[in-house]
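Example record

One chain of 90 residues, shown exactly as stored in the release files.
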Amino acid sequence: MLKYPHIQKNAQRKNTLLYPGLTTVSLDSIITYMQYYYVMCQKGSVIHRCYVLLDSESADTLHDSLEQRYDLVQVCDVKRSQVDPDILVK
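Predicted structure tokens for this chain:
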């Protein structure tokens, strides 16, 4: 028999959070907080560059993660007009 921790036997139908502490937000509100970031990381003579659309917390997390793997890392916010569409990660 499979056991599902989020389903209780004889539970009444009601909307409960599967993961307490997490909330849902609309996609429109997420997009308004997202910015374009230039990401550059270098290890030895190999350089990777791209532009990404992220919120500020994700950009900080990305920077911290890349810092552990590369010699030089730069993650900085840029204006939409400065984005090179050829290296934009969608």
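Notes: Helices lie at 27-32, 56-69.
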